[in-house]
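Weekly structure sync, notes
Attendees: PL (lead), two postdocs, one rotation student
Agenda item 3: pending single-chain targets
PL asked that the sequence for the first pending target be pasted directly into the notes so everyone works from the same version. It is reproduced below exactly as submitted, 375 residues in total.
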Amino acid sequence: MAVPVVLIVAIALADILAPQSIHLGPLLVVAPALTASFGGSRLTALIGALAVAALVAISVIRTSIFTSNHESQLIALMVICAFTVLFCRLRERHSAELRQVRSVAEAAQQVVLHPLPDRMGSLRIASAYRAATDQARIGGDLYAAVRTATGTRLLLGDVRGKGLPAIEESALVLGAFRSAAHREPELRALRTELDAIVGWSRCQPSKDCSDTEESFITAVLVDVPDDTPVIHVLNCGHPPPIRLHDGQAIVLAPRQYTTPLGMGLPEAPQGGVDTFPFELGDTLVLYTDGVTEARDRAGCFYPLADRVTAWPNTATPEGIIDHLRVDLAAFCGGNFADDAAAVVACREPVTGDSAQRPDKARRSARRPSLVHRSL
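Predicted structure, written out during the meeting:
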């Protein structure tokens, strides 16, 4: 507020001290116009009133208040100030509506992509997400975790495409996974159910078939038993997870990839469920291709498996996610061409509290502003 007031005082003094042939009063319109760029309608109106008062004072001091020149200046200044206040008021109303829409959108996005708990069964979990679409917290990438009677099940996937259609596909798959995974069907049966639901959705009359004919969802389904040091993985055309064991990064490539969800190819090869060791202290890193396909200025892809073993102090999933967020942004210069998501899970001893905890997506009280940590 100090700058507009100083401008009013300076212009008024300059006009009073100037010769009679020079009129600087019209420059007073700069003060309310400048105020409107950073202040509200009330402050703009106040500065406008001060500018009008200053012009009246100039006219009185120069004994020319009743001349046509100063009368026209005064009328013009009042009209411009009135329009400036009006537009400022309209801007405030639109800004309030935009804030309301954003708050509703953020709530809806959090309903779709539940925050993962920091502990579930034998797993300590951390996750991160960065949507390619501006002002969005979710996109075509998806992840979820479900607690069963004998273990924990994880899903991480990537919908082909971006924007609202990809978000719709993500919501469909996440809802189907949460509904079916806790019943503990075998992973291939779970994949078949997810694929059938995606296919059913695309056959609905409200769908535009031209947008979904070439759409599919790559995904990886992981079953982590509480009482056995192994994990069962079914990979549906997704980048393979990475297992961190004794400082080494082991890529868990499947013997055969199964068909991505929504391909509509019943005769396509069905990959089997792969079983890998997963002992106490081991860490599993799930990620989407938005992470590994991020490029630096030279066009090189991000080498996640090489980088993750070189980071110090990555004993916890939260530490790995923090390092990944900083390192990935530095590698690609903050230019993400695709949605990127990562889930890190470390096997720890099962406590009574974690074994009985239901599948609840809750905010971390320790870092409430990073429910979905941004990559």
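Discussion points:
- The chain has eleven helices and eleven strands.
- Confidence is low (pLDDT under 50) at residues 356-371.
Action: rotation student to compare against the earlier draft before next sync.
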